[in-house]
Specification:
The protein is mainly alpha-helical and about 450 residues long. The protein folds into 3 domains: about 1-110 and about 210-215, Fumarase/aspartase (N-terminal domain) (Fumarase C, Chain B, domain 1); about 110-190 and about 230-360 and about 435-460, Fumarase C, Chain A, domain 2, CATH 1.20.200.10; about 370-425, Fumarase/aspartase (C-terminal domain) (Ribonucleotide Reductase Protein R1, domain 1, Orthogonal Bundle), CATH 1.10.40.30. The protein has 20 helices and 4 strands. Helix 12 packs antiparallel against helix 13 (about 320-350). The radius of gyration is 30 Å and the shape is elongated. It starts with 10 loop residues before the first helix and ends in an 8-residue tail after the last helix. The relative contact order is 0.11.
Length: about 450
């Protein structure tokens, strides 16, 4: 493996090897060359250039034949990679067949090659994202079903609220993942051919231009837009924003899990493996390393998405600077998304759960998270406002004196008059105050199972 192909040192933290390969320098170059080969073949098919010229051109559209360093130097001078590449391709074709060299890049412009090459890479990248997202959905569905009755404290504003279950929390994560899967189909629809020539008119090709565009789109298996989109960048922005939202949802999962891993909480933990999550100085540490990497991606991606959105404001028929700003930013969004997704899969598939600790933490305040249940039991008789004030007073007393809420309630005449001790104990049972939790879980699982049944087995993350 040469320097140009080497996987960056931190890919394991913030990306995957497979996504790096999709957006490597050589893969970028191959995308442009695939456009040039398809252009030549389509033009030959349409009778625009000789068939033998197309054959020669296609033979030289292999990225392995070109010096990346020299092309990089040429791009710095020309302003984009397509110009020195077309020059190098033309030289190679000329060496074999001087007549054929005159048909290289016939009727196209640099942006046609670069944008279409990017669309080819994006297709491969979206397939990787989809595969790992389906794997995450499977893992979340299993977690959701397995822990549907595992009672824990619901937390609002980082304080204990009312009881929930871990299955319901996982259902929230799963619900978002399912929506992102639906959006992937929409993102795939934004993969279209870019072919407009110098200013989006295909004037250099004359009458055969539109027919050639149809043939080229078919050759490359891309959708054909109604017209070239050189400075209409909403498709690229939609891709960036869609991936950004996915990474944000992955960050939400990582935030929840890292909070559950805090020493004082200790209700869940990332998978355990030798050397994982250790400290260079503290032997006892077990850090949420995957969550840290996912959260780092969730912090970085919004700024990159912002850059793509800003780059939408381009000038006239061909942009100056805005188009260029996308070239490294969109691949970086894909890389970070892939890394966050792969690490999320790993965490959810191996998530450790401490159900007894969850119940113990819920019991720390001796019944206070069930105060609402008692309030709602009294509300039909006393009125909601009166009942709320009464139980608020009881809760404050229990908290101030360190007493169980049940004990304080049993000592209050206003409560005893309406609720027997057995009823109070029943109301303070967290497993009885879960509302529509199981209904919500079932609804999300039904969607997840429908999707998983449609999908082929997924490859492992890497």
């Amino acid at each position: 493996m040469n320097a140009a192909q080497r996987v960056p040192l931190l890919t394991g933290l913030f990306g995957t090897a497979s996504m790096h390969a999709v957006f490597s320098d050589r893969a970028c170059l191959q995308g442009l060359l695939d456009f040039e080969a398809a252009l030549a073949r389509s033009e030959a098919e349409q009778g625009i250039i000789p068939a033998d010229a197309a054959e020669v051109i296609a033979r030289h559209c292999d990225a392995g034949l070109y010096d990346l360093s020299l092309l990089g130097e040429g791009a710095a001078q020309a302003g984009n990679l397509a110009i020195p590449l077309v020059r190098a391709l033309t030289a190679r074709v000329h060496a074999e067949n001087p007549d054929a060299s005159g048909y290289v890049h016939w009727g196209a412009t640099s942006q046609d090659a670069i944008d279409t090459g990017a669309m080819l890479q994006i297709g491969l990248a979206l397939a990787l994202v989809r595969s790992d997202l389906v794997r995450l959905i499977r893992a979340l569905a299993e977690l959701c079903d397995r822990e549907r009755a595992t009672v824990m404290a619901g937390r609002t504003w980082l304080q204990q609220a009312v009881p929930v279950t871990l299955g319901l929390k996982a259902a929230g994560w799963l619900d978002a993942a399912l929506r992102h899967h639906e959006r992937l189909a929409e993102l795939e629809a934004h993969r279209v051919l870019q072919f407009g020539g110098a200013a989006g008119t295909l004037a250099s090709l004359g009458v055969p231009g539109p027919g050639l565009a149809v043939a080229l789109a078919k050759e490359l298996r891309l959708d054909l837009p109604d017209l070239p989109w050189h400075t209409q960048r909403d498709r690229i922005a939609a891709l960036a924003a869609g991936l950004g939202m996915l990474v944000g949802s992955l960050g939400k999962i990582a935030r929840d899990i890292s909070l559950l891993m805090q020493t004082e909480v200790a209700e869940a933990h990332e998978p355990i493996a030798p050397g994982r999550g250790g400290s260079s100085t503290m032997p006892h540490k077990r850090n949420p390393v995957a969550s840290a990497n996912i959260l780092a991606a969730a912090l970085r991606v919004p700024g990159l998405v912002s850059t793509v959105l800003l780059a939408m404001v381009q000038e006239h028929e061909r942009g100056l600077g805005g188009w260029h700003a996308e070239w490294e930013v969109l691949p970086e969004i894909f890389r970070l998304c892939a890394g966050a997704l792969a690490q999320s899969v790993e965490v959810i598939e191996g998530l450790g759960v401490d159900a007894p600790r969850m119940l113990a933490n819920l019991g720390l305040t001796q019944g206070l998270p069930l105060a609402e249940a008692v309030t709602m039991a009294l509300a039909p008789v006393l009125g909601r406002s009166t009942a709320h004030g009464l139980i608020e007073k009881a809760s404050r007393k229990a908290s101030a004196l360190g007493l169980p809420l049940e004990e304080v309630l049993n000592e209050m005449p206003e409560v005893r008059k309406e609720l027997a001790p057995e009823r109070i104990r029943e109301l303070l049972d967290p497993s009885r105050y879960l509302g529509s939790t199981q209904l919500f879980i079932d609804a999300v699982l039904a969607r997840a199972r429908g999707l998983v049944d449609e999908e082929a087995p997924c490859r492992p993350s890497n």
